[in-house]
Predict the 3D structure of the following.
Amino acid sequence: MDAALRGHPYVKSGIDIACWDILGQVAGLPVCELLGGRYGEDVALYRAISQESPEEMAAKVAVYRAQGYRRFQLKVGGDPDTDIARIFAVAERLQPGDRLVADANTGWVQHEAVRIAKAVRDIDVYIEQPCLTYEECLAVRRQIPHPFVLDENIDDLGILLRAKADLAMDVVNLKISKLGGLTKIKQARDLCVSMGIGMTLEDFWGGDIATAAIAHLAQSTPPEFLFSTTVFNSYVTVSTADGAPQRVDGRMAASKLPGLGIQPRMEVLGKRVVEIS
Ligand SMILES: [Mg+2]
């Protein structure tokens, strides 16, 4: 696909995932077996907590823990003082074994990111993608004590290798369509395993089909490097495929059927917008 069209990883991702589904169906193997083998029975999920008041966000921890989640991704990147209050409020509700990430989604400027992280220096929290650029994130990383996650800046192998050389992160958030499909994210995933970097494996958003692809990728990753993953069909109200993984007690498992193990619901997806032969 790269030889035919430069860029456009989001478009290529869907086609690439479909090719892995076809390969699995032809081989009679689930995609996770093709991607490296199935580890364990299931994988742990994180739950994103959207920006609200500190108290409202803290209250969500108990709601989501009751659903089985133990990994919480706090959406910050707003007003710095409110974000400090959000992190303190949520951290107070954590229990042993819980894991907290404060994900700014590029929303802080560099000096604010350093100030916020230093204000919560004694809290057991990962800081994810505080600023817009790689260089700003690296500058913050070098001034703060927390474990550090890069996300938006890591979109190919070149920057992943540079980030490793710079010791710019402890964990990386890899999204299937950001890399351009399962083929490319598998390369990045395997490289992270070799380099000792933890991973959140997911996508930008999605429903049943994206969730199925994520589940196969996550469950074929050595568990010590799988920081967390996402079950996107828990966040949406429309089902786009039958047989997709479902959240059970904060965890999900890839299908044991060949391919992705799903049947797309064409009546929901609607008419094809492109045909490839
Ligand atoms: Mg992120």
Residues 103, 105, 128-129, 151, 173 surround magnesium ion (CB under 6 Å).
